[in-house]
Amino acid sequence: MALLASVASGQGEVEAVRNSLEASSLPQSWQGSSGVRIVVTDETGAPLPDVDVLMRLERDSASATGVLLLRTGQDGSTRVEGLAAGEWQVDLRREGYMLLTAYIALEADGDPKVGFSTRQRTGTFWAELDAVFLPPDLEIKAALRTGRDSPKQARKARAKALEREREAAERRDRRQRRGDLAKVVEEPEADRRAAERAAERRAERERREAEKAAAAAARAAEIAARQAERDEEERRRGRMATVVEAPEPGRPGAEPEPEVAADAPATADSTQVAAAEPVEEPPTEAALAPDDISLETPSAAAAEAPGAEPMRLLPNPRLLPAGACPECRPGEFSVSTETIVPALEAGSVSECSRGLAAPLAGLAPVLGEALAGVGARFAGSLVEARGDDVRRLLPTDLASRIDAIVDSVGAADGSCAVLGIVLPAAAQYVGFRYQAGERGTYLECGLGQDCQIQQARFVETPVVTPTGTVTVVHAVFENRAPRQRSARLIVYFRPAPGWLPPN
Questions:
Q1: 116-124 own/partner pairs: CB under 8 Å, 24+ apart
Q2: d(Cα 413, Cα 462) in Å, to the nearest integer?
Q3: Which pLDDT value is given to residue 153?
Q4: Is 229 buried (19+), middle (13-18) or exposed (0-12) by CB count in 10 A?
């Protein structure tokens, strides 16, 4: 009977040998004087041909020496000789059957001994195949006779192996239970202390959560109260805003001129006038120049009195009242200023600091004194390239002093610039926002870190200098990029009661 056997190396090369395997065709560590005949049958005990038999010496499995490939003939058997003594792993594979793996021990002068075997389902196949391992010189008829009893022997071996595994599992379980019992007996105090600590941590966590909830409820109540106050203030201001300006005589809706009684003498002392006093017409505020601005500021008492003229801020394109400022909270205004900062010269090191603009803080009282009248109605930029700034309201010498301070910051370090905002003293300063950009696109700037456009930053928080008439807010910007940048300072404030935005 022809026997097909092959040796598969680690590189995937296959060498076929017929009828027998020569010792020289095996790895050196596999060669010896042992051998085995393998007879494979199906569940009925009939010989099973074309079964692939893969053998591997267990002690060399880690070195990836290779695998010995055999195949059964029509009589369901195959044999191999010249193998080394030791434990071998044998895998039996055939399409339509489960994979059978057996571990056998080969001896030089003894019969092969089966340690244990396992089956593994392949695909959807559940059919079993059985194998018996015999001496290689046993006649095929005797092998077949022995093979007829092999299924029963294999089932007995499997039953014994399962019994051994069950007993081993029971021993492991007993050892585990003894260990757990020892822990319970030896460590009850530790478990009790751990439980107490866990309970204490849980109680502390619940206490902190309760405190947080109470604080949140208090904050919510405080916010609701403040919102109610703001709503009431808005309603009151809305009622004040309904007071209309007195029309000029001769215009539609104007009051008639007071009449003089017909029978009265034409003397100043005996002139009779109407009961109502004539109302002064408010000054025009559009495009005011310094000479056009009245220095008379309506008092707070006049703003609060029924029928008094509300305070109206001067026109400023960068002033956004409540409702026009998307990020403002209810009742808040915003005003901004921008400037262009030159690029940092090659090889230079920028050394901007908040102290560069310190003279502005010293100039604030003088500025407030110069704006004693109109300062209560101006909210805008300190210096603006477009000219919409406070300098248009100041005497020439004071405007020149502001320009000198701003220019000195740039002269100290060409990549530094100062941005300033002037607010009425009665305005409540709320907060600020930094932005920097290029080509009209602005990104945010945080405190103590670079702006989102990189290589640019604002130096610390703004400096706020209050006076009796105005509040000056200024900040220093630093550009470390090799190209010019634009810087923007936005200030948020809450106007005093009775104020109105520009027309």
A1: 116/157, 116/161, 117/154, 117/157, 117/158, 117/161, 122/93, 122/97, 122/98
A2: 19
A3: 65
A4: exposed
Phi, psi at 217, each rounded to 5° = -65, -40
What sign for the dihedral angle of Cα 227, 228, 231, 236? negative
Query: How does the average pLDDT of the chain come out, rounded?
Result: 75
pLDDT band with cut points at 50, 70 and 90 for residue 74:
very high
Whether the Cβ atoms of residue 438 and residue 483 lie closer than 8 Å to each other: yes
Cα angle 30, 31, 34 (rounded to 5 degrees) comes to 100
Task: Residue 470: name the closest of 397, 361, 383 by CA.
Answer: 361
Output the CA angle 464-468-474, nearest 5 degrees: 20
User: Given strand 99-106, what is the order of strands in its sheet?
Assistant: 14-18, 4-8, 67-71, 52-57, 86-93, 99-106, 113-120
Nearest to residue 417, comparing CAs of 346, 481, 353? 353
Distance of alpha carbon 328 from alpha carbon 326, whole angstroms: 6
Task: Quickly name the fold that domain 4-162 has.
Answer: Immunoglobulin-like (2.60.40)
CA dist 393 and 294 (Å) reads: 11
Report the pLDDT value the prediction gives residue 434, as an integer from 0 to 100.
94
List the 333-341 sheet strands across, edge first.
319-320, 333-341, 485-494, 428-438, 441-445
Whether pLDDT at 57 is above 60: yes
Q: Are strands 4-8 and 456-458 parallel, antiparallel or unpaired?
A: unpaired
CA distance 381 to 476: 14
**C-alpha span between 226 and 224 (Å, rounded):** 5
Buried b (16+ CB within 10 A) or exposed e, 111-125: ebebeebebeeeeee
C-alpha–C-alpha distance, residues 314 and 111, integer Å: 114
Residue ranges, comma separated, of all CATH 2.60.40.10 domains in the chain are 4-162
Note the pLDDT of residue 8: 35
Of 160-174, 376-390, 404-418, the least confident: 404-418
Tokens of 455: 């290589």
pLDDT digits (tens, 9 = 90+) for 412-424: 666 888 899 999 9
User: What are the residues whose beta carbons fall under 8 Å from the beta carbon of 170, sequence distance 6 or more?
Assistant: none
Q: How far apart are CA 198 and CA 236, in angstroms?
A: 57
Q: For 246-287, write each residue's pLDDT tens digit.
A: 344 444 444 444 343 444 333 334 333 333 344 344 433 333
**DSSP result, 191-222:** HHHHHHHHHHHHHHHHHHHHHHHHHHHHHHHH
